Amino acid sequence: MTKQEALFEYCLRLGDTALILGQRISEWCGHAPMLEEDIAMSNIALDHIGQARIILSYACEVESKGRKEDDLAYHRDARQYRNLLLAEQPNGDFGMTICRQYFISVYNFHLYTQLSKSSDASLAAYAAKSLKEVAYHVRHSHDWVLRLGDGTAESKARMQNAVDDLWFYVDDIFEADEVDDILLKDNIAADMKEIKSQWEKTVAATLAQAGLKMPEIKSQMRMGSRKGNHTEHLGYILAEMQFLPRAYPDAAW
Amino acid sequence: MPKCSFFLVLILMQRGSFIFTLMETQTQLSFIRKILDQVSDPEIPILTISDLGILRSVEEENGIYVITITPTFTGCPAMRVIEENIVEVMAQEGISNFRVQTVLAPAWTTDWMSEEGKIKLAAYGIAPPSSSTEDHLKAMISGNKKQVECPFCKSNNTKLTSAFGSTACKALHFCDECCQPFEEFKCH
User: What is the rounded CA–CA span in Å between residue B155 and residue A64?
Assistant: First the structure.
C-alpha cells in the first residue's frame, strides 16, 4: 500500500463516520423528546455532515481520480464504507442516541486534538476546525449521560442498557492496521493506542459520575469497519440516503 | 559622473513608478474591501462578512484579486450564498478579474468579530460572544457556567436553555430578570 492509498483510506474512515453519524442523528429531526433537543440534534447532525463534506472532498483530492464528494457519498456500497460500526447503530431510545454520541464525540475529541498537529496540513486544518464543534458535542452528550444516569430509576436503567449494548462496538473504534502504521511513520495519523487510553479514562470518569457501571465485556466484540465489514444496519441507511441520486443520476438542487 | 546620475535618475524613476503602482493597488484593494462591506451574513443581516471575520483577506496576485473567506462552522449553509453574493456585488461594480477562495486554516474564531460587530449584534437582540475562545474552551472542559448578559435588560441573571439554537452559531438563553428568551452568538 502506498502512502497516498493509505491517506485516502484514512480520510474515508474519518469522513464516513461523520457522514453516517450525521445521517443517523438527522433521523431525530421532528421526533426528538423536546423542541430544544430537536434543534440540538439537527445542529449536531449538520456539524457532522459539514465535517464529512470537507474530509471526503480532501479524500477525492488525495485519490486524484476525478471523483467528487457526492460520488463517494452516493455511489459506494456498504462494503466500501469505512465508518465505525458504532456510528451506524440505530437511534434506539434517547439514551441509546446519547450514549452513541458521547462515545464517538469523546473519541473525536481526542482524535482531532492529535490530528490538529498532523504533518499533513489539510488534515491538521480539518481537525482544528472540527475540534471546536466536537467540544460542543462532548459537552452536550456528557451532560445528558449525567442527567439520565443520575436521574430516575427508569432513565438510569435505560442509560445503563445503552452503555452495555453499545459496548460491543467499542473495540472497533480503536482498531489500527497497516493504514495507521504507514501514516504514523510520517506523523500524519493519530496513535490509536494513545487515543484508546485517553478515551477509556474520560469515559470511565463520566460513567462513575453518572452512577453507571463500566461494562466488563472482553469477548464477542464486533469489529471490522476498517475492512468494510458492517452490521446489517448500514445497508438500510444507504438505501434511504442514496435512493434519489441513484434513481435520478442527473438530479441536482 | 554624468553617467552615474543618469542611472540614479533611472533608479529613482523606477522606484517612483513602483511606489505609484503599489499605492494604486492599495487604493484598489481598499475599494474592493468597501464593496465587500455590502455583503452581509444571510442569517444575521446586520453583520457584514468583514464584521464576522469571515472575510480573511483581499490580495492582488498577477492582476487577479483574490478574495479569501473562511467558514464559521463546517456545515454552515450560508457559505455558498455568501460566495454568490460576493460575485454579485463585484459584478455590479464591473470587476471581473477576481476569484473567491475558501480556506480552513487558521480555523475561524469569534475572537475575530469586530467590536463594531459586537455592538450591532447586541442592539439587534443577540448577545455577542461573551468570552475569548480560550476562556470558552476552558469553561467547556471544566464544565463551569459562564455569565451571559441579556441583550434586552443587561441583567446577568440569565440561564442557558440550550447550547444549540436556530442557526449553528447561536445558543438559546433565558433572562430571569425580564423573562425574555434570547439568543447568544456562541463562542467558537
Answer: 55
